[in-house]
Automatic annotation (TrEMBL):
It comes from the Bacteria. Keywords: Oxidoreductase. Belongs to the nitroreductase family. Residues 114-168, 173-255 form the Nitroreductase domain. This is Nitroreductase family protein. The keyword Lipid biosynthesis does not apply. It holds the Pfam family Nitroreductase.
Length: 276
Protein backbone atom coordinates (compact mmCIF):
# COMPACT_ATOMS: atom_id res chain seq x y z
CA UNK A 1 0.00 0.00 0.00
CA UNK A 2 1.14 3.60 -0.46
CA UNK A 3 2.81 5.42 2.43
CA UNK A 4 0.25 8.24 2.42
CA UNK A 5 -2.70 5.98 3.33
CA UNK A 6 -3.77 6.80 6.90
CA UNK A 7 -5.94 4.57 9.14
CA UNK A 8 -7.95 6.30 11.89
CA UNK A 9 -9.70 4.60 14.80
CA UNK A 10 -10.48 4.92 18.52
CA UNK A 11 -9.24 2.44 21.12
CA UNK A 12 -8.64 2.06 24.84
CA UNK A 13 -5.19 2.32 26.39
CA UNK A 14 -4.65 -0.93 28.34
CA UNK A 15 -2.25 -1.90 31.13
CA UNK A 16 -1.26 -5.57 31.40
CA UNK A 17 1.36 -6.12 34.10
CA UNK A 18 4.05 -3.56 33.32
CA UNK A 19 3.10 -3.24 29.68
CA UNK A 20 0.88 -0.41 28.48
CA UNK A 21 -0.49 -0.67 24.96
CA UNK A 22 -3.26 0.02 22.48
CA UNK A 23 -4.75 -2.85 20.48
CA UNK A 24 -4.92 -2.60 16.68
CA UNK A 25 -8.62 -3.39 15.95
CA UNK A 26 -7.94 -4.76 12.48
CA UNK A 27 -5.66 -7.26 10.76
CA UNK A 28 -2.65 -5.01 10.20
CA UNK A 29 -0.95 -7.49 7.86
CA UNK A 30 -3.93 -7.40 5.52
CA UNK A 31 -4.74 -3.70 5.80
CA UNK A 32 -1.12 -2.61 5.32
CA UNK A 33 -0.51 -5.36 2.74
CA UNK A 34 2.52 -6.62 4.67
CA UNK A 35 2.00 -10.41 5.07
CA UNK A 36 5.58 -11.02 6.29
CA UNK A 37 8.14 -9.13 8.34
CA UNK A 38 7.91 -6.40 10.93
CA UNK A 39 5.40 -3.61 10.35
CA UNK A 40 6.65 -0.13 11.23
CA UNK A 41 4.09 2.64 11.60
CA UNK A 42 3.98 6.35 12.27
CA UNK A 43 1.16 8.71 13.09
CA UNK A 44 -0.45 10.25 16.15
CA UNK A 45 -2.20 9.16 19.34
CA UNK A 46 -4.46 11.97 20.61
CA UNK A 47 -2.48 14.25 18.28
CA UNK A 48 0.84 13.28 19.91
CA UNK A 49 3.41 11.98 17.37
CA UNK A 50 4.06 8.23 17.47
CA UNK A 51 6.54 6.07 15.55
CA UNK A 52 7.29 2.42 16.36
CA UNK A 53 6.87 -1.16 15.19
CA UNK A 54 3.73 -3.22 15.78
CA UNK A 55 4.08 -6.00 18.38
CA UNK A 56 2.25 -9.31 17.94
CA UNK A 57 0.11 -10.73 20.76
CA UNK A 58 -0.79 -13.82 18.72
CA UNK A 59 -3.94 -14.77 16.78
CA UNK A 60 -3.33 -11.89 14.32
CA UNK A 61 -3.71 -9.36 17.18
CA UNK A 62 -1.10 -6.60 17.16
CA UNK A 63 -0.52 -3.72 19.54
CA UNK A 64 1.16 -0.33 19.89
CA UNK A 65 3.46 -0.26 22.93
CA UNK A 66 3.19 2.98 24.94
CA UNK A 67 6.39 3.92 26.78
CA UNK A 68 6.51 5.78 30.09
CA UNK A 69 7.11 9.19 28.54
CA UNK A 70 4.15 8.80 26.20
CA UNK A 71 1.99 7.49 29.08
CA UNK A 72 2.68 10.70 30.97
CA UNK A 73 1.54 12.72 27.97
CA UNK A 74 -1.55 10.63 27.22
CA UNK A 75 -2.90 10.19 30.75
CA UNK A 76 -4.51 7.26 32.54
CA UNK A 77 -5.09 3.76 31.22
CA UNK A 78 -8.69 3.08 30.28
CA UNK A 79 -8.94 6.34 28.37
CA UNK A 80 -10.22 6.15 24.80
CA UNK A 81 -7.54 7.36 22.41
CA UNK A 82 -7.85 8.66 18.86
CA UNK A 83 -5.23 6.86 16.79
CA UNK A 84 -4.05 7.67 13.27
CA UNK A 85 -1.51 5.34 11.67
CA UNK A 86 0.23 4.78 8.37
CA UNK A 87 2.91 2.29 7.38
CA UNK A 88 6.42 3.75 7.05
CA UNK A 89 9.27 3.11 4.67
CA UNK A 90 11.24 1.51 7.53
CA UNK A 91 9.85 -1.77 6.17
CA UNK A 92 12.45 -1.54 3.39
CA UNK A 93 15.10 -2.14 6.07
CA UNK A 94 13.41 -5.39 7.11
CA UNK A 95 13.29 -6.54 3.50
CA UNK A 96 17.00 -5.81 3.01
CA UNK A 97 17.86 -8.10 5.95
CA UNK A 98 16.59 -11.04 3.91
CA UNK A 99 19.04 -10.53 1.04
CA UNK A 100 22.37 -12.27 0.65
CA UNK A 101 23.96 -8.91 -0.14
CA UNK A 102 23.54 -8.00 3.53
CA UNK A 103 24.33 -11.29 5.27
CA UNK A 104 27.69 -13.10 5.22
CA UNK A 105 27.77 -16.88 4.78
CA UNK A 106 29.09 -18.75 7.82
CA UNK A 107 31.86 -21.31 7.56
CA UNK A 108 30.42 -23.88 9.97
CA UNK A 109 27.21 -25.87 10.16
CA UNK A 110 25.16 -25.19 13.29
CA UNK A 111 26.15 -28.37 15.20
CA UNK A 112 29.86 -27.78 14.55
CA UNK A 113 29.52 -24.16 15.65
CA UNK A 114 27.81 -25.19 18.88
CA UNK A 115 30.32 -27.97 19.59
CA UNK A 116 33.51 -26.02 18.89
CA UNK A 117 32.71 -22.50 20.13
CA UNK A 118 35.05 -21.20 22.85
CA UNK A 119 35.32 -17.85 24.62
CA UNK A 120 38.08 -15.80 22.95
CA UNK A 121 39.70 -12.94 24.87
CA UNK A 122 42.77 -12.18 22.74
CA UNK A 123 42.37 -10.46 19.38
CA UNK A 124 44.35 -9.37 16.34
CA UNK A 125 44.04 -5.93 14.80
CA UNK A 126 41.99 -7.24 11.85
CA UNK A 127 38.79 -5.22 11.39
CA UNK A 128 35.37 -6.83 11.47
CA UNK A 129 33.50 -5.72 8.34
CA UNK A 130 30.05 -4.15 8.39
CA UNK A 131 28.68 -7.17 6.57
CA UNK A 132 30.08 -9.53 9.20
CA UNK A 133 28.76 -7.35 12.02
CA UNK A 134 25.31 -7.20 10.43
CA UNK A 135 25.35 -10.99 10.11
CA UNK A 136 26.06 -11.29 13.84
CA UNK A 137 23.34 -8.77 14.72
CA UNK A 138 20.85 -10.53 12.44
CA UNK A 139 21.50 -13.75 14.37
CA UNK A 140 20.59 -11.87 17.55
CA UNK A 141 17.35 -10.66 16.00
CA UNK A 142 16.47 -14.26 15.02
CA UNK A 143 16.51 -15.57 18.60
CA UNK A 144 13.36 -16.99 20.22
CA UNK A 145 11.55 -14.87 22.82
CA UNK A 146 8.55 -15.23 25.10
CA UNK A 147 5.35 -14.49 23.14
CA UNK A 148 7.61 -13.30 20.31
CA UNK A 149 8.00 -9.89 21.99
CA UNK A 150 11.67 -9.58 20.96
CA UNK A 151 12.50 -7.11 23.75
CA UNK A 152 16.17 -6.70 22.82
CA UNK A 153 18.09 -3.63 21.65
CA UNK A 154 21.76 -3.68 20.63
CA UNK A 155 24.36 -0.96 21.15
CA UNK A 156 27.33 -1.42 18.80
CA UNK A 157 30.50 0.14 20.22
CA UNK A 158 33.53 0.61 17.95
CA UNK A 159 35.10 3.72 19.48
CA UNK A 160 38.36 2.73 21.20
CA UNK A 161 37.96 5.30 23.98
CA UNK A 162 34.49 3.98 24.75
CA UNK A 163 35.77 0.38 24.78
CA UNK A 164 38.65 1.34 27.07
CA UNK A 165 36.28 3.11 29.48
CA UNK A 166 33.95 0.12 29.46
CA UNK A 167 36.82 -2.23 30.40
CA UNK A 168 37.98 -0.34 33.50
CA UNK A 169 35.50 -1.23 36.24
CA UNK A 170 34.82 -4.90 35.47
CA UNK A 171 37.96 -7.04 35.84
CA UNK A 172 36.28 -9.69 33.68
CA UNK A 173 35.88 -7.17 30.86
CA UNK A 174 39.56 -6.34 30.35
CA UNK A 175 39.56 -7.96 26.90
CA UNK A 176 37.43 -5.04 25.69
CA UNK A 177 40.59 -2.89 25.65
CA UNK A 178 41.81 -4.80 22.60
CA UNK A 179 38.46 -5.76 21.06
CA UNK A 180 37.58 -4.59 17.56
CA UNK A 181 34.11 -3.76 18.84
CA UNK A 182 31.46 -4.92 21.26
CA UNK A 183 27.69 -5.35 21.33
CA UNK A 184 25.78 -4.37 24.46
CA UNK A 185 22.58 -6.41 24.62
CA UNK A 186 19.81 -4.48 26.36
CA UNK A 187 16.28 -5.45 27.35
CA UNK A 188 13.14 -3.33 27.24
CA UNK A 189 11.28 -3.66 30.57
CA UNK A 190 8.11 -2.16 29.11
CA UNK A 191 8.02 -4.50 26.14
CA UNK A 192 8.72 -7.57 28.30
CA UNK A 193 7.45 -6.86 31.81
CA UNK A 194 8.55 -10.15 33.40
CA UNK A 195 12.19 -9.82 34.47
CA UNK A 196 12.98 -13.54 34.23
CA UNK A 197 11.64 -13.71 30.68
CA UNK A 198 13.45 -10.50 29.71
CA UNK A 199 16.79 -11.96 30.82
CA UNK A 200 16.02 -15.28 29.12
CA UNK A 201 15.07 -13.58 25.83
CA UNK A 202 18.21 -11.42 25.74
CA UNK A 203 20.37 -14.38 26.74
CA UNK A 204 19.02 -16.39 23.81
CA UNK A 205 19.85 -13.47 21.54
CA UNK A 206 23.36 -13.26 23.03
CA UNK A 207 24.00 -16.96 22.42
CA UNK A 208 22.85 -16.66 18.81
CA UNK A 209 25.37 -13.88 18.23
CA UNK A 210 28.18 -15.88 19.86
CA UNK A 211 27.49 -18.80 17.53
CA UNK A 212 27.26 -16.55 14.46
CA UNK A 213 30.58 -14.94 15.40
CA UNK A 214 32.26 -18.33 15.72
CA UNK A 215 30.75 -19.43 12.41
CA UNK A 216 32.36 -16.41 10.75
CA UNK A 217 35.74 -17.13 12.32
CA UNK A 218 35.43 -14.19 14.71
CA UNK A 219 36.30 -14.55 18.40
CA UNK A 220 33.78 -13.53 21.03
CA UNK A 221 33.17 -13.71 24.75
CA UNK A 222 29.98 -13.19 26.75
CA UNK A 223 30.31 -10.75 29.66
CA UNK A 224 27.31 -10.90 31.98
CA UNK A 225 25.98 -7.72 33.58
CA UNK A 226 24.98 -8.16 37.24
CA UNK A 227 21.92 -6.03 37.76
CA UNK A 228 23.00 -4.20 40.94
CA UNK A 229 26.69 -3.89 40.02
CA UNK A 230 28.82 -0.79 39.50
CA UNK A 231 29.42 -1.97 35.92
CA UNK A 232 25.69 -1.90 35.21
CA UNK A 233 25.49 1.64 36.60
CA UNK A 234 28.45 2.66 34.43
CA UNK A 235 26.88 1.19 31.28
CA UNK A 236 23.59 2.97 31.96
CA UNK A 237 25.40 6.29 32.45
CA UNK A 238 28.07 5.93 29.75
CA UNK A 239 25.63 4.95 27.01
CA UNK A 240 22.69 7.09 28.21
CA UNK A 241 20.20 4.23 28.53
CA UNK A 242 16.53 5.21 29.01
CA UNK A 243 14.88 4.22 32.30
CA UNK A 244 13.00 1.32 30.70
CA UNK A 245 16.15 -0.21 29.12
CA UNK A 246 18.49 -2.44 31.13
CA UNK A 247 21.86 -3.90 30.02
CA UNK A 248 21.85 -7.71 30.07
CA UNK A 249 25.17 -8.69 28.50
CA UNK A 250 28.21 -7.36 26.66
CA UNK A 251 29.72 -9.32 23.76
CA UNK A 252 33.38 -8.59 23.08
CA UNK A 253 34.37 -9.21 19.44
CA UNK A 254 37.61 -9.51 17.48
CA UNK A 255 39.52 -11.82 15.18
CA UNK A 256 41.21 -14.49 17.37
CA UNK A 257 44.82 -14.14 18.43
CA UNK A 258 44.57 -17.41 20.37
CA UNK A 259 43.48 -20.95 19.54
CA UNK A 260 41.45 -22.79 22.14
CA UNK A 261 40.79 -26.49 21.65
CA UNK A 262 37.26 -27.72 22.18
CA UNK A 263 36.44 -30.82 24.19
CA UNK A 264 33.37 -33.01 24.52
CA UNK A 265 31.00 -31.77 27.19
CA UNK A 266 28.40 -34.50 26.85
CA UNK A 267 27.73 -35.64 30.43
CA UNK A 268 25.50 -38.66 31.04
CA UNK A 269 25.45 -37.99 34.79
CA UNK A 270 23.40 -34.85 34.18
CA UNK A 271 20.75 -36.51 32.02
CA UNK A 272 17.59 -37.68 33.80
CA UNK A 273 14.98 -39.77 32.01
CA UNK A 274 11.34 -39.26 32.91
CA UNK A 275 12.07 -38.28 36.58
CA UNK A 276 15.12 -37.09 38.55
Amino acid sequence: MSGDYMISYEAEMIKDGRSVYIIIPFNAKEVFNKPKGTIYVKGTINNIPYRNKLISKGNNVQILIINKKLQDLLGYCGTIMKVELMITEDNIISDVLDTQDFIENCKLDVISAISTRKSIRKYTEQTITDKELNTILNAGFCAPSAKNKRPWNFIVVKNKDQLMELSKININGKMLQNANCCIIVCGDKILQGTKELLIADCSASTQNMLLASHGLGIGAVWCGVIQNSDWRKQIVKQFKLPESIIPISVISLGYPKEIRKSESRFDLSKIHNEIW
